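b(0,+)-type amino acid transporter 1
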Amino acid sequence: MAQNIPAKCTGNAHRSNFQTNITTMGESNNGRVLSENSNNSGGDEKLELKRELGLFSATNLIIGVIIGSGIFVSPSLALEKSGSVGLCLTIWAACGLISLLGALCFAELGLLIPRSGAEYVYIQEAFGRMHKFWGPLPSFLCSWVYVVICRPAEVAVIILAFSEYVCQPFEMHFGVMSPEYRDLAIKLISLIGLSLLTYINFVSVKVFVRVQNLFTITKLLACFILIIAGIYQLSIGNTSNITRGFEGSNITPKHISLAFYYCLWPYDGWSTVTIVTEEVKKPEVNILRSILIAVPVVTVVYFMINIAYMTILTIPEMIEAPAVAVHCTNRTLGVFNFVIPLGVAMSAFGSALSIQFSIARLCYVASKEGHMLEAFSYIHMRRFTPAPAVILQGVLTTVFILAGNIATLIDFASFLIWIFYGLAMISLLVLRKTMKDVERPFTVQLWIPVFMIFVSLFLCLVPIITDPSPHYFIAIVLIALGVAVYIPFVFYMIRPAFMDKFTYYVQMLMEVAPEEKRSE
């Protein structure tokens, strides 16, 4: 079976003078449609991901991933464990500082290794050549856990939260739906929302940048509305909770540990810009600057929102409220109480959009390394997006949405993420030895990655020690499945015959081709 396939894309989507390449299924190069023989005339663009993220967009990407729906829904766990307003606010600020230190370590790594993929690439660079079998295994497991399980499941949970808050304003005015119809409505809205964000990430990075910037600004406006409401309450004398200070603090190691644990998770996402390094304009400058802007902004926003909550609500109300932000607005905004549910919905949608954007890039990079199916390393020839990787994330997230309650899966698998953060910090130390002669535009002090290694161990061990649930067996199963895939398909490089046809039809259906070598 022979087909005439366009081998490369020109810079102008309307041009038709593609050089074609006829490839027969089952012949050389495993039946893939090739682009290597195509002429690159002077007016043509290379087939590669384009640098579309400036400083503003890179900063918004970090903020967009970090601030989801959690700070609006359940920030009270840290207050419950810390026991006092003063200690709780101190821990929120400390966690912001810890997140900044971790992000600065990733900035050093991102400038040293200017490739997309974040911790996956850093772990692969540090350990990949140390041993034929064990060297690439940690980075493969990183891509396996992130791409196949944790991130699509996380997007599913966030998009379900988006649907919940889309429904809330209608239920306020038209009454509560029956549980059966409500569950159906939430899943339908979730699937529509997922389809929309997948389309945005598929169609254009420029479209993504515009939408992401809009939603990040919107979520910050929602945060500022809550903060202003809190400032108003302080101005009229509602200071009883704040003036309690450290009264009632729980200073036992268990309570302090859990308070830090619950505060650090809402900051997750500080490494996002290094996942998309190859799409950042002037990465040698903008990666570090975006981190230095975004993480402190999020820290201040989180700190001020918690002050607003503690000013508007009593401590018991804040701990018991199922959705703290909505409870606050019901008390302060009157007939405009629909604003925050819509703001939370937009915040959740923007976060899901940005997470899918970044994890599709990790999938794309892992595929280029041979750790995922080759077809997912291909780029759309006109849109310059990793289209197959985006569609894969949409499909996996759909599965998790339809699967029902996956909160347990996330709770007992997400702590694996901090294992890979810790490995990235170890990679930084290793690369200082193995790449000691390479010029580094930015370097953190030695104590910072060492400290972050202990933070990673802390976040991995605290949930197991404080709640030694058999459900953590889920994480072991995920790792075991990853190893079972790694041995035949990565280590021994077994390529099932059907994968040739799969790659071929992916190219045919999605109009994608292998990336041309990036010029540095």
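thats it. The longest strand covers residues 2-6. Residues 1-31, 34-43 have pLDDT under 50 and may be disordered. bye
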